[in-house]
Specification:
TIM Barrel; 43% helix; 385 residues; alpha/beta; 14 strands; globular; 16 helices
Amino acid sequence: MSLDRCHNIERLRAKAKRRLPAPIFHYLDGGADDEVTLRRNTDAFDDYELVPNLLSDTSVIETKTQALGVELDWPVFLSPTGMSKLFHHTGEPAAARAAHKAGTLYSLSTLATTSIEDLAAATDGPKMFQVYVYKDRGMTREFIERCKAAKYEALCLTIDVPVPGNRERDIVTGMTMPPRFSLSSLLSFAMHPHWSLNALRDPTFDLANVSKHKSLSIADEQVSPIKYLSTQIDGHVTWKDAEWLAQEWGGHFLIKGVHSAHDAKKAAEIGAHGVMVSNHGGRQLDGVQACIDALPSIVDAVGGEIEVILDGGIRRGTHVIKALALGATACSIGRSYVYGLGAGGQAGVEKALHILRSEIERGMALLGVTKVSEITREMVVGRGI
């Protein structure tokens, strides 16, 4: 199936599933425990229904919006996702170039396989860096200084990983650290020679940002970047730490992983410019609310005071419109664009972004609005409204 025949995100997912070895695809596609939250993140959008206002002139649709301190051509940007080279050998630069071409922002993960500096050299488009608070505060400061030097527009703190989620698909396939691949998993790698050969040809696969850190060499013994980072993420972070990080950065600062009005208010109090309503794609605590269900109470608590980004479950342009109607400033996508990356590298990401933007523009015209600012809460009804 060619990219031209991928008419929606689900078709890109199907193509990525065919192109990737099973352990890699399930690492991308899976969630925690019974994956209830993973499924609900998308399914919950069906509980909200749009209410069009018709007989409006929608011959010109304007999708520009302000978010994260920059102007975006449309109200969607790319979430931070780790280890993109797992899904295509061109990795994070391919996704970032696609984002820039589509007029939006790319977010680089701490767990990226491309460094802060190399990503900045790959594209002039706006960029955000996702960071954790580390036991070694010097490591945190180093990330901040590198982002400032590379002129990143925003910094994002992820707060929903005090411990790793229970991702049972990865246990079954052996996609653990260290890997423990089953015979069927090894056979899947053998049956995907294009992926495997590209992986073998690239000796630089590592956590590029962590491997540059001066503390990686401990007692003259080289330590795996993944193993080192797992020991460095501070599982006892408090709001005081988040406030310290916001002050150290001094620029546009978001907190990712917020899922309650209480935490949204705390984020505003410590100086965050916005929150990302996120449950880590259903990969951490299973059984929490879908992001779209959590959104209204958070908007009621801090909307108009700080930005509220909906991050989770988006597979259609109408999902974005529903989030905007419920008060989101903008939306961010993870799996939706990574499916495209797995399906076809940069061209696949461009296809994913084109699909969603086209659906948003068409949905706005059918809703009877011409600007993002015209999408209001009166245009959506359903459970929880």
